[in-house]
């Protein structure tokens, strides 16, 4: 499984991806972010799904980038080209994968800004090759293990938040997933693209660098629960005869 998260806010876009690869009983580490960083031409792709499908689609797409990259002037055109490579791999491999009991399940997050984009864009690309754009209404998208990190993003993250706050929330959503799922773990890779910078900043964080942040959050969360005024819940500890019966 995978945890990849893309966030769009007023300052730009953020991507975060874990690196754990699980195959049977074996666990390895591999990068799940592909980046292109050129003058006025920067984008990244994060993927979840079968690694063999991902690697084949990215390999095909690298050839397209080498031959046609200059013709990509807006990010949606890049997304369409990558979608073509996913469809190509599906045509070649879907039947044999399904015969082996596996699904063709390559989901992708594509983010970036090209020379004719007015601002950085963020897209969710489905295995079928269709896509949606991520915007202000729901300024984030997760692929892979989506359940555990979703609540804090919905509660805390807003389009008008600054990049540093958004990155904190991104880490905490990953941390919630890491704690709850044994197939998502450190190291994590982050990508940051600020508005009109055309320069993706990449960084890899090891677990030991962020353990203190995780521990502090856990402690603050427990303290917050302890200090929460919730007298109404005391009724759960009262016998039926002790409760006040309200008449309406």
What features would you describe in this structure?
The protein is an alpha+beta fold and 248 residues long. The chain is 36% helix and 28% strand. The strands form three sheets. A five-stranded antiparallel beta sheet has the order 10-1-2-11-12. A hairpin with a 5-residue loop joins β8 and β9. α1 runs antiparallel to α2 and α3 packs antiparallel against α4. It is globular.
Topology diagram in text:
Elements: E1 3-9, E2 12-18, E3 20-23, E4 26-29, E5 33-38, E6 41-48, H1 51-68, H2 75-99, E7 107-114, E8 121-125, E9 131-133, E10 140-144, H3 150-156, H4 163-180, E11 188-194, E12 201-205, H5 207-227
Antiparallel strand pairs: 1-2, 1-10, 2-11, 3-4, 5-6, 6-7, 7-8, 8-9, 11-12
Computed over alpha carbons, the radius of gyration is 21 Å
Elements, N to C (H/E) = EEEEEEHHEEEEHHEEH
Distance between the termini: 52 Å
Range of strand content: 25-35%
Keywords:
248 residues; alpha+beta; 5-stranded antiparallel sheet; 28% strand
Summarize the structure.
The protein has 248 residues and is an alpha+beta fold. It has 5 helices and 12 strands. A 5-stranded antiparallel β-sheet has the order 10-1-2-11-12.
């Amino acid at each position: 499984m995978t945890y990849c998260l893309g966030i769009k806010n007023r300052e730009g876009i953020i991507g975060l991806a874990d690196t754990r690869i699980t195959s049977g009983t074996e666990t390895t580490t591999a990068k799940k972010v592909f980046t292109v960083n050129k003058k006025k031409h920067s984008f990244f792709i994060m993927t979840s799904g079968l690694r063999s499908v991902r690697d084949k689609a990215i390999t095909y797409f690298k050839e397209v980038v080498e031959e046609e990259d200059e013709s990509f002037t807006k990010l949606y055109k890049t997304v369409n080209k990558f979608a073509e490579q996913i469809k190509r791999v599906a045509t070649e491999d879907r039947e044999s994968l399904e015969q082996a009991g596996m699904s063709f399940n390559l989901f992708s997050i594509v983010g970036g800004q090209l020379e004719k984009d007015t601002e950085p864009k963020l897209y969710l690309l489905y295995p079928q090759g269709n896509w949606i754009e991520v915007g202000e209404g729901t300024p984030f998208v997760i692929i892979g293990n989506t359940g555990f990190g979703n609540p804090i993003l919905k509660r805390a993250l807003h389009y008008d938040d600054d990049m540093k706050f958004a990155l904190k929330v991104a880490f905490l959503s990953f941390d919630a997933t890491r704690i709850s799922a044994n197939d998502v773990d450190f190291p994590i890779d982050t990508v940051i693209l600020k508005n009109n910078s055309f320069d993706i900043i990449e960084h890899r964080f090891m677990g030991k660098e962020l353990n203190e942040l995780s521990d502090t959050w856990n402690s603050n969360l427990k303290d917050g629960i302890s200090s929460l005024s919730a007298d109404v819940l005391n009724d759960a500890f009262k016998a039926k005869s002790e409760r006040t019966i309200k008449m309406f």
